[in-house]
Amino acid sequence: MVVIYNEEFAKLEFDESVPCITWTPVKFVTGEKWRQPFRMGMDYMEERIKEMPDLGWLNDTRSLKTVKMDDLRWLNENVNDRAYKFGAKKVAFVLPENIFGKLAVKFYVEYTTKRMDNKFQIKAFNTLEKAKEWLKAKSDIVIEEEAIL
Fold it and tell me: What is the pLDDT of residues 29-55, one digit of tens each?
């Protein structure tokens, strides 16, 4: 596991065994502090995806409490557009335990999947292990414990 970013409010790690970049929020944050780990993750992913075309993105949002709507819009319009350009394909979520966190994930997923230019396969799971199993699979297999948003 390679640590890409580690601050008091979020961390990013690269797991070559999957392969995936895992974003884990630790506490509530907005604005530039929210955006910085995603920018760094995209920089890292854009470089590594050249040698690992199946590199996925995993959002371990189990402890996510809430996200401001402006930050979710920024994520969808900036991070998604960039990831589409360099070829990212799969985005997995481990769902939050908090209802407001679940609503934030639901908003992101609905907004992304409604886009005409959406290129992501997005799935949500109740466990980290199932999310990694799906990201690791070469095809869009059905994982029996897929979560419902």
Answer: 999 999 999 999 999 999 999 999 999
Rounded distance between C-alpha atoms, residue 149 and residue 146, angstroms = 10
Residue 140 is predicted with a pLDDT of: 55
Prediction pTM value = 0.91
- Characterize the bridge pairing of strands 121-125 and 10-15: unpaired
Output the CA–CA distances (angstroms, integers) from residue 9 to 23, 67, 109, 115, 147, in the order listed.
11, 13, 22, 29, 25
Distances (CA, A) of 112 to 18, 36, 78, 117, 144: 23, 20, 12, 9, 24
Q: Tell whether the model's pLDDT for residue 98 goes beyond 70.
A: yes
Query: For 126, which DSSP code?
Result: S
Token pair in block for residue 122 = 């997005």
Q: DSSP letters along 32-89, please?
A: HHHHHHHHHHHHHHHHHTTT-TT-EEEEE-TT-----HHHHHHIIIIIIHHHHHHT--
The C-alpha atoms of residue 32 and residue 30 are separated, in whole angstroms, by: 7
Domains in the chain with CATH codes: 2-136 (3.30.750)
The first and second tokens of residue 80, run together, are 């998604």
